[in-house]
# Entry
Amino acid sequence: MTATSAAAKPESATTAPMIRLRNVRKVYRTGGREFVAISDVTMDIAEGDMVSLVGPSGCGKSTLLKILAGLHDADEGEVVIGNARSAFVPGRDVGMVFQQALLLKWRTILENVTLPAEILRLPLGQARERARNLLAMVGLAGFEDKYPYELSGGMQQRAAIARALVHDPKLILMDEPFGALDALTREKMNLEMLRIWQESRKTIIFVTHSIQEAVFLGSRCAVLTAGPARMADSFDIDLPLPRNLNVKTTEAFGRYTQRIYDLLGM
Ligand code: ADP
# Structure
């Protein structure tokens, strides 16, 4: 089954979700053996949501991101991305951020950020202009002509976020984007990420192993059970925006983290 665009469907533009997953199942077949990576995932994601995807290692989170990115097909179930108000073009409308920044070491930071636009053959002058603005947004103004080795890990990850946004995709998928950073840099990046999300107004889905990060960043949280993945629960995180680190000391924050621990049986 392939992810489809819902542009032609007669759904209400105001109520239709940006992503609709129904009973999604994914089986890997290698060497004549079958491995069920995702057994049953159902959820809706609204346009502009920041969804944290939490679950034990190996439960199928990356597989779900790959299905949403169009890199894998689901074996069963329904995957609909886009709605009547906002058509979705697979490939063109997705930006990805991984645990490692994966910058090309022979390209400058600006040239790294414009790479997706080059691959998609978008006008280069506009892409450079947009890349400069995005680098300023992620706090890297002045680093356009540096090479990756001249930047810290956190700065490289900021450049990777700018690169994911350069072709103005509707959906950003992030797979443990801050997992390789030290604890302090990670907290700083969390704050930056909230600001970037609010400024860019993108729909973002990010995988994290940190329950605190899931609550701090998410407008919505989806909790997956141990593999094969099933949806344990998904719920809104109604903590006020903009958030700062003080929110972590509030009772409401504690209730959300406890809810996730309970769902994970911890
Ligand atoms: P997570 O991101 O939650 O750690 P993954 O989605 O990477 O989990 O993987 C889910 C399960 O599927 C794991 O047990 C993994 O070993 C298996 N898996 C992932 N990719 C493949 C593949 N290409 N072929 C076979 N098994 C795979």
In short: Residues 183-200 form the longest helix (18 residues).
